[in-house]
């Protein structure tokens, strides 16, 4: 069974930083495109970022460009989301996904059925 586990969330003040981790269990991530999504209370889930299996292609939502950085360490079977200059509107539950076939692009976030999903980690940006 393909499982993903997110961690690294927490409470941070505006302008602060967090690094989220997405660890795969039961499979190796090195062949998968990995994405990050978030969902705020009362809002629809939105795509945040994705990274191709090679790490050579990344994509970011306009709202996080220049502040978030996605990376992968296949030796650790982990994908990271470094979040800097956090804003209150970044608050939400962050989820990671993985797909064997789909590549990373702006259309990645429209996929209905991902191969694997995590259960999320909460990020709260508040003073």
Largest β-sheet summary: 7 strands, mixed
Helix/strand order, N-terminal first? EEEEEEEEEEE
The 3D shape can be described as: globular
Protein structure class: mainly beta
Low-confidence stretches: none
pLDDT averaged over residues: 96
Number of helices: 0
- End-to-end Cα distance, whole Å, is 40 Å
* DSSP strand content: over 45%
Helix proportion range: under 10%
- Number of DSSP-assigned strands: 11
Our Rg estimate from Cα atoms comes to 13 Å
Overview of the molecule:
The protein is mainly β and 127 residues long. It is built from no helices and eleven strands. The protein is globular. The mean pLDDT is 96.
Topology of helices and strands:
Elements: E1 3-7, E2 10-12, E3 18-25, E4 33-39, E5 46-51, E6 58-60, E7 68-73, E8 78-83, E9 92-99, E10 116-117, E11 121-125
Quick tags:
4-stranded antiparallel sheet, mainly beta, 7-stranded mixed sheet, 127 residues
Outline of the structure:
The protein has 127 residues and is an all-beta fold. The protein contains no helices and 11 strands.
């Amino acid at each position: 069974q393909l499982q993903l586990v997110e961690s690294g969330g927490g409470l941070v003040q505006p302008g602060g930083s967090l690094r989220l981790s997405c660890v795969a269990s039961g499979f190796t991530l090195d062949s998968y495109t990995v994405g990050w999504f978030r969902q705020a209370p009362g809002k629809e889930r939105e795509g945040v970022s994705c990274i191709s299996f090679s790490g050579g292609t990344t994509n970011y939502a306009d709202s996080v460009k220049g502040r978030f950085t996605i990376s992968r360490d296949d030796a650790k079977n982990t994908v990271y989301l470094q979040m800097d200059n956090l804003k209150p509107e970044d608050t939400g539950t962050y989820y990671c996904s993985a797909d064997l076939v789909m590549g990373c692009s702006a259309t990645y976030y429209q996929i209905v059925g991902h191969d694997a999903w995590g259960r999320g980690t909460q990020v709260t940006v508040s003073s």
